[in-house]
Amino acid sequence: MAASNSASRRAFSTGLIFLIATVLLMFANGRFPLGVCALLGPLFLIYFTRCGKGLARMALAYVGLSFAFGFQFYRMTPFRDIAYWIFSAAFGLTLLFPYAADRYLGKRWRGLSKSLVFPLALVTSEYLVSFGPFGTWGSNAYSQYEHLALLQLLSVTGLYGITFLIGWFAAVGAALWEAGFAVRNVQREVVAFGVCIVGVLLYVDIRMEMFPPRSPTVRVACITRPDERRFPNPPSADLNRRVMMGEPLTDAETAQLHQRSSDIADFLLGRADLEAQAGAKVITFGEFNFPVLKQYETDLISQARELALRRNIYIALPMAIF
User: What residues have CB less than 8 Å from 108, skipping those under 6 apart?
Assistant: First the structure.
């Protein structure tokens, strides 16, 4: 009876750790990114995947990662309905790779070298994915966009330095957890990670305090398109799919899409005009903020060019051309 109760408690504890990891990862990137979740989510999942039966836990981790990814980026991709979840499941394989590397390759090492397996695999996975059609989209580094001091590391390592630190924090935290939070048992890992963080912070302080910008500066504005529901005539899911696939459209559908694109362009360029009057000399927008059918691309460029010439400004025009 005692053995049965102990097994039940372990199963409950394991399930709870997996659930916490999945929930944290749901808010680690995408629509609702919280920097702390991006740090703690991998930590909990590493601890979960390192114990117990490997294949069973890897399968659960894959499901959790795919679901969390699907939640993070819901309606942020051109895919809809079942196609979106197939896409999330495919992306989940790239997300699982660092955990599999940590579980199976990490067994060959101990101490400091073991703690580096996960962050290196995480960087490798993101780097390889960046050669695909989505580039660095979905990188863990984007989760830290609010931590301006940490972002100074971008000037040296690019996104991958921040991704590495996120992964290393998770690996060292999991090692500390496994050691019963006895720092002396994982001293090398903790000290090495601490020295690295201190070095990053010193670099930030030196860079900001001793090398401030001395050249003339200009005012820059970045404008993001508001909620899609602000604009009338939203296309149906079927029309969206046919536009994405390049299938033929009726004249009425073309007119509907053109009118909606014009409304969006008028709104965004109107905001740009206000920023220009307030003193902005360089104005840009969120990526793909200007959807436009190919036959109307020149008209949109001309509209933006006229504003740029009239206000004597530079405009970056990120279009999504169909």
Answer: none
